[in-house]
Amino acid sequence: MEGCFQNVIGEIGRDYIKKGDIIDDHCISIKELGINTVFSLSHSYTIHTFLDDERYIGVFSSLDKAEQAIDQLKKKPGFRDYPNDFNISELDLKVLLWSGF
User: Fold this and answer.
1) In whole angstroms, what is the distance from residue 8 CA to residue 10 CA?
2) pTM for this one?
């Protein structure tokens, strides 16, 4: 796959695994997955005029996996009262989102 990802792990300016980072045999890089998009899942609802309950759930490699997570979470406290307030955003991994100044 042609892509702009060169590193498997780490942050910009960091080429080591920080103690506490979880990298195990189940981890795989985006490059190895061969995907161009990921799906970000969140849940948000208004408690009152100036207060929202917002939860960032995670990032998934496919829309189907994000939807499966929603199906599981809809049954749990904190989500079941607001089952229609999930948000899935598709993110293109080859698009620079920061343009700077």
Assistant:
1) 7
2) 0.65
> pLDDT (tens digit, 9 = 90+) per residue, 11-20?
444 455 555 5
Tokens (6 digits) for 71? 């199906």
Tell me the one-letter amino acid at 80. R
- 3-state SS, the chain, equals CCCCCCCCCCCCCCCCCCCCCCCCCCCCCHHHHCCCEEEEEEEEEEEECCEEEEEEEEEECCHHHHHHHHHHHCCCCCCCCCCCCEEEEEEECCCCCCCCC
Cα–Cα dist 16/76, whole Å: 37
